[in-house]
Amino acid sequence: MLDVDTFLTTLYVIVDDFCHSRPPKRRPGPKASLSSSEVLTLAIFARWSRFDSERDFYRYADTKLRDAFPTLPERSQFNRSVRSHVDLIEAFVLHLVTLLQAPKCPYQALDSSAMPVRDAKRRGHGWLAGQADIGWSNSIGWYEGFSLLTAVDPTGVITGFCFGCASSADQPLAETFFALRARPNPRLGSVGSLCRCPHIADKGFEGAENHRRWLECYGARIIHPPKRNAKKPWSKPLRRWVAGIRQIIETVYDKLFNTFGLWRERPHELEGLRGRLAARVALHNFCIWLNEQLGRPRLKFADLMGW
User: Fold this and answer.
1) How far apart, in whole angstroms, are the C-alpha atoms of residue 8 and residue 65?
2) Which helix (H) or strand (E) holds 95?
3) How many CB atoms lie within 10 A of CB 257?
4) Per-residue confidence at 102, pLDDT binned at 50, 70, 90?
């Protein structure tokens, strides 16, 4: 179990090394009160579910982290700084993927999950009108928000992620995901790099034509169980084996939504949601890296921090 100071120091060192490895970015106006390394460190640390809200985290930082971050600005200014560093946070996620050697994995599990941002029964349009919409999830029913697509290696490392409106079907979301991996866009780097290993998915990604096109156009191979009434159904042991190796992605979603508080996300701006989602993924991958350095099981997060 680590104390807060040790955790923050270790995180800052990794973040600072990453930031110094990238070309400096010139920003207009006066010098920022926090460096990019400090912004990323605080943004990632703030995603522990121990903090009920951004306001709760800022109170903690203002009272207990002032010695480490003496130039901490006002809360609104800090939140603007986090939003302006979204691309850098997403790039740091991929840096951690490289440190953990996830691209060498034999396969990646691929799945989507509901990411609600507002009660679907509330009246009015909400803050993200025209971006978030109504969708269906087998676990929570109808919800308003987004659909989160994530790729995970066998040890739990998140190798890429993206999200679309809640009404998006899995196939078009996966199409965009694979297309961006094959032809990277610097403004949408969260999807990660091209992976030649197969992607293990569920029946939501079915479609022989889709699979053929994804393989030919993007080099993405999909493996998923066929329908039970298919001409060549899989045996029960094979279905159980595939379901077993896909279980890792359910574990990862549990970490994101519960350990790192994604269920409580109620964003007012899309960039804010992007930044906090990327920070949660970065915190997840960093905790895996830290556990590995400490000789602990990779996904043992519950007793990693001693508050």
Assistant:
1) 10
2) helix 86-99
3) 20
4) low
Q: Tokens 């920022």 belong to which residue?
A: 32
Give a yes or no: residue 205 inside a domain.
Answer: yes
Give pLDDT tens digits for 149-174. 999 999 999 999 999 999 999 999 99
Residue 103 is given by DSSP the state G
Write down the pLDDT at residue 185: 85
CATH value at residue 255? 3.30.420
48-101 pLDDT, tens digit per residue, is: 999 988 999 999 999 999 999 999 999 999 999 999 999 999 999 999 999 998
Tokens of 147: 């659909």
Helix boundaries (H) for 138-269: 170-182, 208-218, 236-245, 247-254
| Number of independent structural domains in the chain | 1
* Exposed / middle / buried, residue 2 (Cβ in 10 Å: 0-12, 13-18, 19+): middle
Domain range for 115 is 101-267
Q: Which of 166, 122, 172 is nearest to 145 (CA)?
A: 166
Choose among 289, 274, 281: nearest CA to 256.
281
**Interior angle at CA 35, CA 31 and CA 38, nearest 5:** 150
249 belongs to a structural domain: yes
Q: What is the pTM of this model?
A: 0.93
Q: In sequence order, what are the beta bridge partners of 294? A: none
Contact 12, 221 (CB under 8 A): no
Q: Looking at this protein, which amino acid is placed at residue 149?
A: L
Distance CA 27, CA 42 (A): 20
pLDDT of residue 233: 77
Q: Is residue 254 part of a domain?
A: yes
Does residue 278 sit in helix, strand or coil? helix
Assess if residue 259 is contained within a domain. yes
State the CB neighbour count (10 A cutoff) for residue 184.
Answer: 14
